[in-house]
Amino acid sequence: MKRTYLSTLLLLIVLAACSAQTVIRNGKNLEERFPTPENFERVKTDENSFAYFLRHYPLKPYGSPVLLYNGEKKWSNVHESVFDMPILSTDLIQCADAVIKLRAEYLYSQKRYDEIHFNLTNGMTVPFSRFANGERVSVSGNQTKWVDGGKKGYDRSVFEEYLKFIYTYAGTLSLSKEARAKDIKDIEPGDFFIRGGSPGHVVLVLDAAQDRRTGKKIMLLGQSYMPSQEFHLLKSFEKISPWYYVEDATLRTPEWTFQKGSLMGF
Question: Do the beta carbons of residue 192 and residue 265 sit within 8 Å?
Fold first, then answer.
């Protein structure tokens, strides 16, 4: 216990020393609040893309703490900013769930309802369109089946019911199995680094930029964690924090280390 405490204390000291290159405190989103380091420019994105959605997602005022599902503050200061994304008052939206929520919210905002589908831990694929058709999933142990009798429609209440069900029965293991592996050289916002399992973890690539001279890439990473907590932009151990260098190597984040080859995408 003493070693764990000292290691955590050292981590916080290191992170405290890693301040952002430049922060525009009144910036409302990642693009406005976090300019790129010198010689870097953000990768181009289409206005209808997931990358654009993440880059322009509203942030809470600079300096806001990360709140847990019960309203308490997260004790460790590993974040640079907090997404203005409501969470439930139950311990349900953890790391994979937050990534799923952002992806689903993006597709929902685009009215691409047929593309909203996620796998449960037992492998069953659950499309939102079937919920919208009034179907629901009956769960008994590890067995699942479709049944009729639910509310129909694509309105927000049905969508929220769908997401809550996915949060309950999906996780890093199911997300890692349904996602596709990606080469690090092809990284783009909306991809994620993941370790599926129990415990497992996932961090989402929120933005990316490239050095105009060398082609070297950097990225911004975000996460939720355990227990359920607000989604937040992570600090890094680099002088360009919160930016991370994109490297074909082990990725070390404040609360998790991902092995080489952990990058995946939807």
Answer: yes
Q: How far apart are CA 26 and CA 14, in angstroms?
A: 26
Question: Smallest Cα–Cα separation from 105: which of 157, 50, 52?
Answer: 50
Looking at residue 198, its pLDDT comes to: 83
Phi, psi of 253 (to 5 degrees): -115, 170
Question: How far, in Å, CA of 179 to CA of 175, rounded?
Answer: 6
Its pTM stands at 0.92
Please enumerate in sequence order all residues whose Cβ is within 8 A of that of 228, keeping only pairs 6 or more positions apart, or say none: 68, 69, 87, 88, 90, 91, 92, 93, 94, 97
Identify the DSSP state of 264: E
Contacts of 230 (CB under 8 A, 6+ apart): 60, 66, 67, 82, 83, 85, 87, 224
pLDDT in tens, 110-163: 999 999 999 999 999 999 999 999 999 999 999 999 999 999 999 999 999 999
3-state secondary structure 27-52: CCCHHHHCCCCCCEEECCCCCCCHHH
* Cβ 226 vs Cβ 95: under 8 Å: yes
pLDDT digits (tens, 9 = 90+) for 120-135: 999 999 999 999 999 9
| SS3 at position 251 | strand
